[in-house]
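Teaching assistant here, posting this on the class forum so everyone can see the example we discussed in section. The complex has two components, and the goal was to see what a joint structure prediction looks like when all of them are supplied at once.
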Amino acid sequence: MGDDLSELTRLHRDGSLAAHYPRVRALLAELTGDPLARAGRLLARLDPDDVLAAHPGTPAPLLALTGHGTLTGAVPALTAELARHGLLARVRLSPFDSWVFDLADPASDLYAARPDLVLCLLDAATVTDDLPTPWGADDVARVLEEKLALLERAAEVCATAAPGATLVLNTLPLLPETPAQLLDLRARARLGALWRRAEARLLELPDRHPHVVVVDLLPQLARGVAAGDVRQSVYARAHLSDGLLARYAREVGHLARLSTGGGKKVLALDLDNTVWGGVLGEVGPDGIETDGGYRGEAFRRFQLVVRQLAAQGVLVTAVSKNDLEPVEKTLREHPGLALREEDFVRIRANWRPKHENIAELADELNLGADSFVFVDDSAFERGLVRRELPGVAVVAVDEEPALHPGRLLEDGWFAARELTDEDLVRPARYREERDRRDFLHTFDSLDGYLRELDTTVTVAPAAPGEYARISQITLRTNQFNLTTRRLQPADVRALAADPAALVLGVRAADRFGDHGLVGAVLLRQDGEVLHVDNFLLSCRVFSRGIEQTVLHAVLRHARDSGLREVRAAYRRTPKNGKVADFCPRGGFTATTVTDEETLFRHDLAELPEPAAHIRLTARFGRAPGEGDAP
Amino acid sequence: MKTVEDYVELLRDELALPVTAEDLGRPLDAVAAWDSVHLLTLCTLLERETGRPLSLADVLEAPSLEAVYRLAVAP
């Protein structure tokens, strides 16, 4: 850890930090607390333009930071937290205390800057600064009401003035010296009730405004982080402590990661001393600690947390240095384990390096290694995985199993803006996929397999209940994503309501089960031309003819509707190389080719063949209710 | 932190300020990459380094980095 910070400091002194920016993520990986804060101060000195000049592909979200009080202290923390995810923070800091103007005026400079994230950092002084002297609980009620009305208005304006942006608000930690100024205990209790009711209303804003996220600071205070430093608050109007700003920035870092497509899907667990106590190969199944005894209970508690994550769509895998047979037998038969064989979508137990196993699992699950979170108690294993697979998030646990759940949950790797029905059944879908693979191995040819698979595909305008899932497909799909245009749920809703646009959902099923909503096609008609604004397909169902079949349906629809041509684009990213030839293979011809993108045109004279083994149902007209606001 | 050299190192590595010993006596506005909020962080860092409290009000009124140093090492 010290070495990593020294190396970062050396790069800073050399002036070569921008040139080595891709290394920064790994250098920050094990830093926390003061060292991470120091790294943030070094990184905040970088000119983002220098980094982008050296590494043009670096995702660089624009964070517009506004709020009450002095906010400069948040900049290094935000810079460090985004860098931890391989992102480059471009922070636009508003003038002191200008949040009301920034957010309520649709023509404000803040919106004109086209931010990706709008951070409105609030604190208790946002309210208490407006209290008269002397004041009572009624005054607090009035000011809270005013601020809530302003925030509600800000949420409305932000949705239209900065479409696609996320507005991040936070709860307002109440400092003890405010209630302590009320001597009547009933009045003091009323103040507490008013304050929490206002915070509850703040936390409910995202229900009505899907582009709003509220960071709840209360759990951070429970962790023991001070809310503020009174001297900094009084002398410098910096109302939130550096420690709390660091925790806030961590949440914002994860939000930025999610909006740039960096969602985590897989939990790869070491077994010995991570899932259970002891080394299975040495103590045997009867000797491992799980259930019963103090440490056994602690391990079991961790197993229950893993099951809780799995129930919400996290794919759990085991990556253990053990012989496979005793591991499988233990997970199947041990009466004390809460986490069992059927909870894992894959179990890898062998003596090969763990990074190789993770890379192969990624391949098998058709996911990038960077969608993995790896947990191990061995510093050696963690270090190796971190070095060989820098995109994997590595979580350290140690010899105290009671701390395992907190370690796993602390960083919020698996949090999502909105979980969909699809998430909840994902582990089952991946287990079905394992059965499909076993079935595949009984065939001589892929064609024979695909015929027997009996795949059905349905293409139809997305229903309101599917908008969240469509948004998620645009946010999470990195490989089969022609233009990488990311859409929040509110964007999908707006598109679906646009008469010139058509948001199509793609569903698929086969003899092993229902895949659910696996893809989306975004169409826009302009006169006699149909534009394919994006075409996306979940990585689970690639290369089975589904993509050709859907493209065929879209082209046939265009021709049957009497349109002249269909246009499409391929916008290159580091991850979507596998769809570079998707349009040409579908009979499109390239009209414009640049380094970043290729534009295509299809004259509809000759349509590509649909895949013979797929039964297709396609509907392009909207049924009543579709495209309406839900 | 015992010497001016230590102080300059702290300013350079902890605060990421591109300063040398010659810059310490300059008015703060004349220090490259200066921002008044650095005084808050500097005060926190100096309290950590010296293990004793500093008056933030005095630090905020200091005219130069040298003046801050004198506050931190004052007996």
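For the discussion questions: The radius of gyration of chain B is 11 Å. The longest helix of chain B spans residues 38-50. Think about how each of these relates to the inputs above.
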